[in-house]
């Protein structure tokens, strides 16, 4: 117990002791007043210290966030056992040692009722403290998760911007290399290439800041780019496009086809006798870029931009992977086709929102359960008191106590029991199916 908690307990003891002295004590003397204060401190310190130790021990070994059900069940069991022992100890000290009552009647009559009533009050206070601890722990965890998600989002955004900024110089460098080769080989074609390159570069500037573009836009750009490649390589390179209309409205990362086409040209030789055949087609949710393998014997070390850029950009947008397949005859790259237009940061806020919704729902469930438990602990002792004071020969309080008790137990099973695990598993299955269908 820290200093602040100790001071709060002393103030509570002071008010309780003063209240009982004023309204429930017949002998108004200073000594009796201090006895009342001592008894109040005895109960308050014993109960608060005992429950605080149990709560701290369980919180160190069982997390409210990660092991909610285990923490709640052990908390309930430990709280009941500890509070029964603490109340019996306090009542024995107060009633038997100070008030000199006979121990033979400790578990019956007035002292028996005092034990029962004290245990219920202690359990009520403990339930409130445990609920407060759970809410504070969950809030702390939620705030931490929000901060982490914001940091992840900022990092991912910076990484995505860095990847997109690679596209401008990369395209310009490769285009100038092609233009340089054409100037020597075919000056008139070089002039045509320069005019076409300005049109293509305009597309690069327009699309590079987007997270996704339609396959139709990307195909139109790729066909124009392929015409420029045909200008240089003529019959040495052949292109085949096979994309149906349904897939044309779906999405891929921008400039992915251009980077992959460059990759094919860069890593393979092409001659009129052995042309390089490049196929672009869609199948089973993927866009395929495939070429017959005619790998160059000597290659300069790659700058690591083309294919690596696409892989990294997809990793920031979706959990679907980019697949690379290579054999002795062909080289194939499969990039995922996405069914909805998203932004790079969409996964982060959605996870944050889902985490908050789960926390809010969980807190609401536990708040309802603890409210039910607190009401039970308050009302039932009151009904027992009324029953024993009015018609002690007929103990009707057992019926509401048992009936309501079964309801509280059912509520606890619903919040912490097997049914919740089954429900969460079904929710996860449905979410995974929806995610797979969307992608």
List strands and helices in order, with pairings.
Elements: H1 3-24, H2 30-61, H3 68-98, H4 109-165, H5 167-185, H6 187-207, E1 213-214, H7 215-233, E2 237-242, H8 245-248, E3 251-252, H9 256-267, E4 276-283, E5 286-292, H10 306-317, E6 323-326, E7 330-336, H11 347-390, H12 398-416, H13 418-438
Parallel strand pairs: 2-4
Antiparallel strand pairs: 1-3, 4-5, 5-7, 6-7
Helix pairs in contact: 1-2, 2-3, 3-4, 4-10, 4-11, 5-6, 6-7, 7-9, 11-12
Domain Signal transduction histidine kinase internal region: 158-236
Domain 2TM: 358-432
Protein name: 2TM domain-containing protein
Radius of gyration, in angstroms, nearest whole number: 37 Å
Mean pLDDT: 76
Strand order of the largest sheet: 2-4-5-7-6
Number of helices: 13
The backbone outline, from C-alpha atoms, is rod-shaped
Helix content: over 70%
Q: Ranges with pLDDT <50 over ≥5 residues?
A: 342-350
Keywords: Membrane, Transmembrane, Transmembrane helix
Protein name: 2TM domain-containing protein
Pfam families: 2TM, His_kinase
InterPro entries: 2TM_dom, Bact_2-comp_sensor_kinase, Sig_transdc_His_kin_internal
Summarize the structure.
The chain has about 450 residues and is an alpha+beta fold. It has 13 helices and 7 strands. The longest helix has about 55 residues, at about 110-165.
């Amino acid at each position: 117990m820290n200093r602040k908690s100790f001071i709060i307990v002393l103030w509570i003891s002071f008010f309780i002791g003063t209240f009982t002295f004023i309204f429930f004590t017949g002998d108004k003397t200073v000594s009796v007043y201090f006895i009342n204060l001592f008894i109040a401190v005895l109960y308050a310190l014993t109960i608060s210290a005992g429950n605080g130790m149990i709560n701290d021990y369980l919180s160190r070994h069982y997390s409210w966030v990660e092991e909610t059900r285990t923490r709640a069940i052990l908390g309930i069991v430990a709280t009941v056992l500890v509070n029964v022992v603490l109340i019996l100890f306090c009542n024995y000290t107060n009633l038997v040692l100070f008030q000199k009552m006979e121990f033979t009647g400790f578990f019956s009559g007035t002292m028996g009722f005092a034990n029962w009533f004290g245990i219920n009050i202690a359990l009520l206070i403990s339930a409130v403290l445990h609920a407060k601890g759970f809410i504070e722990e969950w809030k702390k965890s939620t705030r931490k998760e929000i901060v982490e998600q914001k940091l992840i989002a900022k990092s991912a955004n910076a990484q995505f911007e860095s990847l997109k900024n690679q596209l401008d110089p990369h395209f310009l460098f490769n285009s100038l290399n092609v233009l340089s080769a054409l100037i020597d080989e075919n000056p008139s074609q070089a002039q045509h290439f320069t005019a076409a390159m300005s049109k293509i570069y305009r597309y690069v500037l327009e699309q590079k800041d987007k997270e996704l573009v339609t396959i139709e836009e990307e195909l139109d750009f790729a066909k124009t780019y392929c015409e420029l490649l045909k200008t240089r390589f003529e019959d040495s390179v052949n292109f085949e496009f096979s994309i149906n209309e349904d897939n044309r409205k779906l999405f891929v990362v921008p400039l992915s086809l251009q980077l992959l086409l460059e990759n094919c040209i860069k890593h393979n030789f092409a001659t009129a006798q052995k042309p390089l055949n490049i196929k672009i087609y869609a199948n089973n949710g993927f866009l395929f870029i495939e070429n017959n393998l005619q790998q160059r014997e000597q290659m300069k070390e790659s700058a690591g931009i083309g294919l690596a850029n696409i892989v990294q950009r997809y990793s920031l947008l979706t959990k679907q992977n980019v697949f690379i397949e290579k054999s002795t005859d062909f080289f194939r790259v499969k990039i995922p086709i996405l069914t909805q237009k998203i932004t790079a940061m969409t996964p982060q806020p959605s996870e944050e929102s889902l985490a908050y919704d789960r926390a809010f729902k969980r807190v609401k469930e536990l708040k309802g359960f603890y409210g039910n438990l607190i009401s039970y602990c308050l009302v039932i002792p009151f009904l027992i008191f009324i029953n024993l004071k009015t018609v002690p020969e007929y103990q009707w309080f057992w019926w509401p106590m048992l009936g309501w008790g079964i309801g509280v137990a059912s509520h606890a099973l619903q919040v912490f029991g097997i049914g919740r695990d089954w429900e969460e598993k079904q929710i996860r299955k449905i979410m995974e199916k929806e995610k797979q269908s969307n992608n």
